[in-house]
Amino acid sequence: MLESGLSTGARLVLDLLADEGVETIFGYPGGAIMPLYDALLEHPLGHVLTRHEQGAAFAAGGYARSTGRVGVCVATSGPGATNLITGLLDAQMDSVPIVAITGQVRTTVMGTDAFQEADVTSIAGPVTKRSVCVRDAADLERTLRAAFRVARGPRPGPVLVDIPTDILKAVVPELTRRAPDAWEAAGGRPSGAGEARPSGAALDAAIALLRGARRPVAIAGGGVRSAGATQLFRELCARLELPHVATINALGCATPGDPRFLGMLGMHGPKAANLAVAEADVLLALGMRFDDRVTGRPDRFARKARIVHADIDPSEIGKIVPVEVALPGDLRATLALLLERLRGASHVPVFNGWAEEARAQASPLPADRVPAGVLSATGVLDRFFALLPPGAIVATDVGQHQMWAAQRQRALDPRDFLTSAGLGSMGFGLPAAIGAQLAHPERCVVAIAGDGGFQMTSSELATLRRYDLPVKILLIDNRRLGMVRQWQELFYDKRYSATDLSDNPDFVAIARAYGLRAEFVAEPSDLDAALTRMLASREAMLLHCACFPAENCWPLIPPGASAEETLGPAACAATPLEPAAREATPLEPAAVVAETVYA
Amino acid sequence: MTLDLTLHDWRLMERVVGLIGRLGCAYTRLDVRAERDRYRASLDLVGTPDALRRLDAQLTRLCNDDKEMSR
Q: In this predicted complex, what is the ipTM?
């Protein structure tokens, strides 16, 4: 029993997490982190036991992406810590605030190759904003507070704090409660973000460029989401009648139904979005980083455009493409200042004519060849999004289904469409949906996964069961690593290497083995009813859709190409469907029983 | 290009060196000096202008996070 006013390092960590507003942490115990898990037994902080540390990191990411709050994951030393790394890099690439806490071997044996020792602060260095080891208990509180500040921003991202066992066991003064900080006062915006604003001269230069523009286009990036600037972005586009597009991290930023929104920009974006940017004379790039999946070849990207780039991170400005006007600073402040200047201006340009012209390029998404009577993945997703209730949260995995979903999603808010964009990490979908469902217990949360990615983290089905989380899983099974297969077809002379997953397990049986409801569908005529049952389910449910194996994702701008070189189904039109694809035999799991609930 | 950095955590030199290599640059001189609660690093760097510009921007970001972490 400790004297009054004293605590242990472990208890202090938990108290501090609660004091920072954390309600739930995601983790997996092990030797070096045991003092923390022991203290957790008497602590009100919620804990979700995932079945792999990578699941914990992705779940923390899903929690953070869907709320804007810091997600917290916990793991032990050595393998526990290294298993977090992919999830941390995912958060780093997409600017998602995460604090990872790892146990470490005791300070006296660090550096001796002790059991489960890993130099995780060095390993995590390149995949985090900061990665530190606390070697003195007196530094624990200060370091953890700093970790939350740095994770929140100004540009959010992951921070790892490694804590040796003896520091967790150390007797320390009780936590000093903090006063609510600027982050809370600002409604959950990244800390320090509001202080950074572009200069008046730069704002004037941006307005002048817009005034002189004939074909301007606005691009929303993930920074719009991070800054909480969605409404201001919508207001700006409406005020100027500005055609606009979004990167995959900003889907949901546009006003739903706004005809000036042309869709997702980049490799699998619709023709109208990419052509508008290719034709633009001024680009207003907001909180985006000109990723290669967006630009293709940078020297051929938006060649006619003068670029205004607004971003909280000055290191992103001019990194990939030359910028004419730089607006470094908080995007919410930047957009508010731009709107203020437009309100005070005697002449405000409107671009409705150009918006209509850009919109005229829009066409239905090209469909690939799929034999009659067989489910197509795009057909499944078309019906899924048509039936999905408004306000639902969708988390995708990575691959063809991710791009098909991104093309079809109808998110009302950028925090409603969760995807591993920058890293493209398979295995993300299910654990991210778990994190989102915990943050939003009242909402419909669906994970869309392919058969490849699903098997990377399918052990998290146990997490759904344990916590009775009603996450729905739409499994698009084409028995292939579809995106890689597509690239092999297009760019590797149809040499299909290691992309055949035709020996997939019986996914329905797997879900049922975890105690979850599951159904199988292979007939197009059964699809709507199955989707409806899944979406209406009050409990977790997996819907296994057996889809045509050789369906490709269109449109596609080949890597390193430009919007003008977009490929469609004609790229494969002369190609006979591969033999395995032609057979298109629907899967027949051992026990195909509609709407059977595991008893 | 000569770059002067202030670091609060000397272990960040590992990240600095890693980033130099990652961006295809190299250092031809590297001095690090301890000064009470911080470290001054001075580097002479070679690389393409684009790479050096990106490196400079990334190191600035790294040092800003380090400064915040040390607060």
A: 0.93
